[in-house]
Amino acid sequence: MSIEALASVSGIDTKQGLTNCMDDEDLYMSIIGMYVEQLAENLPQLAQAHSKQDWIEIGKLAHSIKGASASIGAFEIQAISAVIEKAAKHDEISVITDNFESFTSLLDTTSTALKQTL
């Protein structure tokens, strides 16, 4: 994968991601690979937690995704993760349910696009 290919992925600010990695392209690409692996694990976990209405687990997963997304420059995912996490902390179930489909769809779309650049 190249930084140029990664820059074509919608929603990824590669400039910020590289800055977060002290402009170390190898480190950044390694983190991108780990991020894709994390999303592959998190998406089914989110679906299972949602089906069980386990809002606390959804909040924990959103927290993890939020931090990882910030590190790679995926700010849209970071923002919606923060909304989901906050809603879970405050028992705002309607906020979670209203945003859940767009959240998981964005995760899936981004993960798929990133995989294609690996």
TrEMBL record:
GO biological process: phosphorelay signal transduction system
Lineage: superkingdom: Bacteria
Gene3D superfamilies: HPT domain
PROSITE patterns in UniProt: HPT
Domain called HPt: residue spans: 24-118
Gene Ontology molecular function, alphabetical: protein kinase activity
Keywords: Phosphoprotein, Two-component regulatory system
Ranges in a coiled coil: none
Residue numbers of Phosphohistidine PTMs: 63
Stored InterPro entries: HPT_dom_sf, Sig_transdc_His_kin_Hpt_dom
SUPFAM superfamilies (UniProt xref): Histidine-containing phosphotransfer domain, HPT domain
Protein name from the UniProt record: HPt domain-containing protein
Protein species of origin: Psychrosphaera saromensis
